[in-house]
Write a structure and sequence with these properties.
4 copies of one chain form a homotetramer. The longest helix of chain A has 16 residues. In chain A, a hairpin with a 7-residue loop joins strand 11 and strand 12. Helix content of chain A is 43%, strand content 18%. Chain A is α/β, with parallel strands linked by helices. In chain A, strands 2-10-9-8-7-3-4 form a 7-stranded mixed sheet, with helices on both faces. Chains B and C meet through helix 1, helix 3, helix 5, helix 10 and helix 11 of B and helix 1, helix 3, helix 5, helix 10 and helix 11 of C. The complex binds calcium ion (CA) (6 copies). Chains A, B, C, D: Pfam families: Beta_elim_lyase. Chains A, B, C, D: Its cofactor is pyridoxal 5'-phosphate. Chains A, B, C, D: Belongs to the threonine aldolase family. Chains A, B, C, D: Keywords: Pyridoxal phosphate. Chains A, B, C, D: This is Low-specificity L-threonine aldolase.
């Protein structure tokens, strides 16, 4: 199987497994797990934040951020195809009681003027704008890197209105490797950041949420309420540390493979590439093949290639370290053969 | 004062006050207030619904509808400038735990294709689409009448997906009078409807929510939780009955006055009319006067004319029965004089 | 019918109806209703608070208090048979996201030591104690007056822990008339108070919530979200003012009638009085008659006397101004005749 | 250090670490992790339920149960010192919007008559009783085994009222080993069960929630919303399987050690044992030593013995597989020496 459905499918490397095996652990609910503590400090340092918190998933990291920043009746502003809005089961409204205010982005980037206009004035009829959420890279926009200039203007607006910013940086390391801008530079424009260890970095489980000490103290309690306080979590944190040590720079290979895949797909009859491929995601429109995305993905699967239907006619391919250049070429051969078949 | 801020400012007529004075009352929490019962039956009949519930405000009627139709984690679809989304303090997310999914409308009317595309598929990442909310007339679109053809297509889509529709009909009687289509015809396309008595109809307080018996039974309990269960509420219901009896047809005068006002304003230097005036709302862009909406409204006020700033440069005027043709002409004279002054 | 089910069934007097008829009204959502403003100021003064807010019901007043004082994840401490806990549909948990911590009271009065022990320490596992709720008089304890000494000790504990107190004073005027202690003296021991106008005071609809200016500003927004913002609410506020002016002192008659009723019932075979009758509520155990409360209440009803089943064998009678001494005597005659019948 | 604070501090055994190292993993959000699937099937079988779900913590298992069983506005009945009520940060009220109704238990066991009386009738003022929660063994009652006879009567009442039961079985294996009654027998009396792998069983992280297929499908979505969906979770599930295979029967040793500890402590001046020691928890009252629990625990710590203050004067000791008989004897020697010191 060549699994291009998501970079979440990455499996832990030998080094990560060994790290799990050898992890010095303790009870993290008591704050005594050495591997977790080291991981949290490492990520806080990388992101230039005072403190960090290990959480079981990116979704939980994002939810904790909203719960810690907001009060019920607040409105949060986010891009209309952001992960928090599309893929987290309306959790921000259920748990934090906030209303989602979505803005249409350009390749995932929110227009600063639109943002400024969307911030609520003080009025008895209005929710209070409590948080701005950004996502970099932006999944639904095809792994698009949000330009730092865009983030800088937004940060300026947020500061003026004293509204915090949370960055869903599930794939922030991809953005950093693609742009050459450090994750700390991105992070410094936002109050809090969530980064995933289990996507391109390949760790088995977990994300890290970073921010001020005060924020992380609040976050720790929300994690407990959400049931994300784990005991000997070092068994996950230790491979997470390996992921950070060994797998950041190599994301460049994934990006190169994604371009290779996109270029190959572009040459196939009936397939159009929908996104500018900057990182590890390729979005392909397959309507020209006469198939829906669902049908196309099914045919690929029969040939041992996995991808995800992402819209009625769009298919998402995600490259990662379990799929090398050779596998990409095989996948292209399969895609090529599908277009040659009479439907 | 010529008060054109809203039709909510209408004051009860002599007949309404007399009805309040004479109202036969009882304890409505026990279901024993005769005037309330008569009002609820009257509105249910008018709207062609099985049952109805008197509530203290349109906001509460809408909130009860969302609470009664939805479960936490649902997503509700609504127009991006609808009252429920813009002006109810994020209450649907706080109280019902639902996520708001907004669609850009055309004069308040949601595009059916966009609606169909926004309905969620069954997926562990997705909220379930639990309700579609419409608003007719549409306040923010300038009292626009949502075409019944648009509502028919949406009703068809909703039925196919088994998603209920709630109609925020705060000004549904205005839509009906303007279009010549009965409120029952509109209501039959939706599962539940909320109509206001205290706007153009002139009753002092209250709205009515209508739907199936089953729905109203659920709604009654949600009303209790929200603190909308009132005791001798006949004192409000009796004038509400007068409002329904005496003030529906005369909404045509308000619509005529709104057109008169719009035509007059359109001729004033620096003012542009933003909406097609179908009912009792006029939206004017005052940017050409060199003033912001706030400044313009302030100047009007100094001349005894009240209106509401509705955007940075847009001003809303609402006609109603406490403002006759003469008052409209005076208001126009004031507006005209403002444009002649050097700023 | 002799209606002893509740003092909520009181119907507005001629003076109240006239006040409604003549009320000078305005749009209270704009803060422009003179009668509402006068009512709010009057109650704030009576209670010695900075500000007050008119709300459609006691339930809404209590809910707004919890929403304004607390954050989600707080715990509120309240007596285990308090109205907020027993009779408000779990609304504090749904809307404010707070957990209810109940303490068993003595005639409705919480034991201060138990209260102190129930206040949570700072710990990642614990909700934060966010509010203490008292109820005076205490409905379920049979209209018991909570001794001011008890409230003073509780206020001291609350102050030490910086926890606010909300007083559900739906029948605080009854407590005051019975004890001779002013409502202001009670109110000064608590941060916020809700008093009902539509119970013993006889107004058709409404309660008032009082507290600091800052609190009432928050409360006003929560009222809007709950749908309690009403337009020409003066039509209710004006009779409310009459109620305050004319009906406080006469609560003594209700208390006297309650004693008369209790003394009479006590002499009837098979009936035991359960409460020390201090105000306008009588709780009777009817088990000795061989009937359940439901059956007993049904028999009374057939003889034109209404009361409420309050437990499997307990029946609640509430006196109020629509039931005079003569009616009490008739009710006693009916009760007496029931016990003489062979079942 | 002799760590008797909790059985959560157990560290993974060599066999568990090896299992993590070798775990065959997949993406569990796609349902493709073989170790997770095996663990879930194993636990479902053990408990005699149709299906099961791996979750990061017991708290999350409990919260998911409440979210899946209940609607907002429901009331849940639970013992007044249960973990869900005392130690989960009011999460059931925040997230599920349910009100907690607590009943005083006898050694953690709820009185069936009290339970029956607490179930709400159908009334517009009342929350609907939506769930009964039991806890076995009961932590705060000192690891007390809830008698199966008590559970049988409760199950009967619940069935009659069609109210589901959730069992917080964080330490259900301790109950089973102590009583000789299988976990399946306990589980069959309840609709859903949560069991912890990371307490006495020694797995590094995780709990399992079991119930019907329909329930687990709902639960899976709530887990996603709470952020408990983990990717290559096999790294945790594999040691969990080892825990189930190797560590259930040996809980008897922990129970024996707890008795040894209790007997020893009982002989020390100033210490009283508060609970009947049936499993692995000992509660000691240290007031007779002249110290508070906090002070006593601090002194123990200086002598390398860890325990938890559990009340103003009560100290909790929990035995587990990282503390053998020798360590217990050392702990006793320390405790003995403390009582001999002049304070
Ligand atoms: Ca992975
Ligand atoms: Ca009005
Ligand atoms: Ca009016
Ligand atoms: Ca009344
Ligand atoms: Ca362990
Ligand atoms: Ca453990």
């Amino acid at each position: 199987m060549i699994d291009l459905r998501s970079d979440t499918v990455t499996k832990p490397s030998e080094a990560m497994r060994k790290a799990a095996y050898e992890a010095e652990v303790g009870d993290d609910v008591y704050g005594e797990d050495p591997a977790v503590n080291e991981l949290e400090e490492t990520v806080a340092d990388l992101l230039g934040k005072e403190a960090a918190l290990f959480v079981p998933s990116g979704t939980q990291g994002n939810q904790i951020a909203v719960l810690s920043h907001c009060n019920p009746g607040n409105e949060i502003i986010l891009e209309e195809e952001s992960h928090i809005f599309l893929y987290e089961g309306a959790a921000t409204s259920i748990f934090a009681g906030v209303q989602t205010r979505t803005l249409k982005g350009q390749r995932g980037a929110i227009c600063p003027e639109g943002l400024a206009a969307a911030i609520r004035k003080d009025d008895i009829h209005f929710p209070e704008t409590g948080l701005i959420c950004l996502e970099n890279t932006h999944n639904k926009a095809g792994g698009a890197v949000i330009p730092i200039e865009n983030m800088m203007v937004i940060a300026q607006i947020a500061r003026e209105h004293r509204i915090p910013i949370h960055l869903d940086g599930a794939r922030l390391f991809n953005a950093s490797v693609a742009s050459g801008i450090s994750v700390a530079k991105y992070a410094q424009l936002t109050d809090t950041v969530q980064v995933c260890l289990s996507k391109g970095l390949g760790a088995p489980v977990g994300s890290v949420l970073a921010g001020s000490e005060l924020f992380i103290n609040k976050a720790r309690k929300w994690r407990k309420r959400l049931g994300g306080g784990m005991r000997q979590a070092g068994i996950l944190a230790a491979p997470g540390l390996v992921a950070l040590r060994e797998n950041i720079e190599r994301l460049a290979d994934d990006h190169e493979n994604a371009k290779l895949l996109a270029d190959g797909l572009a040459e196939i009859d009936g397939i159009e590439i929908l996104n500018k491929v900057e990182t590890n995601i390729v979005l392909a429109d397959v309507q020209g093949t006469g198939m829906t995305a669902d049908a196309y993905v099914q045919l690929l699967k029969e040939q041992q290639v996995l991808a995800n239907a992402f819209g009625p006619y769009s298919v998402r391919f995600v490259t990662h370290y379990d799929v090398g250049k050779g596998a990409i070429k095989k996948a292209l051969a399969v895609a090529s053969s599908l277009s040659k078949q009479p439907n």
